[in-house]
Design a protein that fits this description.
- This protein is an alpha/beta fold.
- Helix content is about 45%, strand content about 15%.
- It has a single domain, classed as 3-Layer(aba) Sandwich (Rossmann fold), CATH 3.40.50.
- Strands 3-2-1-4-5-6 form a 6-stranded mixed β-sheet, with helices on both faces.
- Helix 1 runs parallel beside helix 5 and helix 3 runs antiparallel to helix 4.
Length: about 150
């Protein structure tokens, strides 16, 4: 059965993930260094990891498998999940695939370099209701595609 793994500390779409997961009866692992209130929902598992760099990423990469879905903005984590046979989706609704992950990693590295050299200050646009809708549609499509593949 498909499970969803959420890199939850800075994830802006946790509620949306839960809505889709409940609609399909999917288990969700909320992985963070601060914990997550499950409110007694048996479909939500709060996984608290150490407050160290990449602890949540490492836990997700170690537990995710083929047919599962990762929700993360972390491109290297998305790459690790794809290599484990899982699907990966960013909070913007962008699906990471074996075909586009190399380009995403290269762009990430280039932008990091530009920030380090001061040529770019980095700018994260605000998260809009349209972004949330796009994410829900993409997750719904991904859940249905994964279910079809099984």
């Amino acid at each position: 059965m498909t499970e969803i793994y959420v890199d939850a500390d800075a994830c802006p779409v946790k509620r949306e993930v839960l809505r889709v997961a409940e609609r399909h009866g999917l288990l969700v692992h909320m992985v963070s260094n601060s914990g997550f209130n499950t409110r007694g929902n048996p479909l939500i598992k709060s996984v608290m990891v150490a407050d160290t760099p990449d602890a949540a990423d490492d836990w997700i990469a170690d537990h995710i498998g083929a047919g599962d879905i990762a929700i993360t903005a972390d491109i290297p984590l998305a790459d690790r999940c794809l290599k484990a046979g899982a699907a990966a989706l960013g909070p913007s609704g962008r699906a990471f695939t074996p075909e586009n992950i190399g380009n995403a990693l290269a762009t990430r590295d280039l932008l990091a370099h530009l920030r380090e050299t001061g040529e770019s200050k980095g700018h994260n646009p605000s998260f809009t209701p349209q972004d949330r809708n796009r994410f829900v549609q993409a997750l719904e499509t991904m859940v249905q595609a994964v279910a079809t593949d099984k």
